[in-house]
Design goal:
By secondary structure, this protein is mainly β. The chain is built from one helix and eleven strands.
Length: about 160
């Protein structure tokens, strides 16, 4: 009985290690709303961002690994980064993705920027205007992120 259990344990251990050591080919892409590929992307390599690579590049990632990818922060054809994989619930640019057997594509989506926007302040109940307004743009971070080697990440305070 002990021999059978040991043998079963060994088979499960070998199969588990084979499954966990497999790689999944994943395409990392970036496109304008017109479906045109643009810009460059980067991936986190443990202590720094990789050299930029072109949209459509494929990587053999280990199954069940987490991969952090950064979309381009530049504006192309009046469009900028907006989301990954059409997930509007989290618009942060550098995103961690769990690579599973169904992960085939990581897609950075760009959408049109808006121009001519004005933010005005006024004190309720008075005619006073002016002052300083600050807000954080979740698409661009300009602080040093300790999780990513104190390198600049992607959020910006706009005044």
């Amino acid at each position: 009985m002990k021999t059978k259990l040991f043998f079963l344990f060994m088979i499960i251990t070998i199969l588990s290690s084979e499954i966990l050591s497999q790689n999944k080919i994943v395409t990392i892409d970036q496109r304008l709303s017109t479906n045109q590929q643009v810009g460059t992307l980067k991936k986190w390599e443990g202590s720094s961002w990789s050299n930029p690579f072109s949209p459509g590049t494929q990587f053999p990632f280990p199954l069940y690994s987490n991969q952090v990818i950064l979309g381009d922060q530049a504006i192309y054809s009046n469009q900028k980064y907006n989301n990954w994989n059409s997930d509007f619930s989290n618009v942060k640019n550098h995103r961690s993705f769990n690579i599973t057997p169904t992960t085939d594509l990581l897609l950075s989506n760009f959408i049109a920027t808006n121009t001519g926007i004005t933010i005005r302040t006024s004190l309720e109940g008075t005619s006073a205007t002016g002052g300083v307004v600050e807000f954080r743009d979740p698409w661009f971070i300009d602080f040093q992120d300790a999780q990513f080697g104190n390198q600049l990440s992607i959020e910006k305070t706009i005044s």
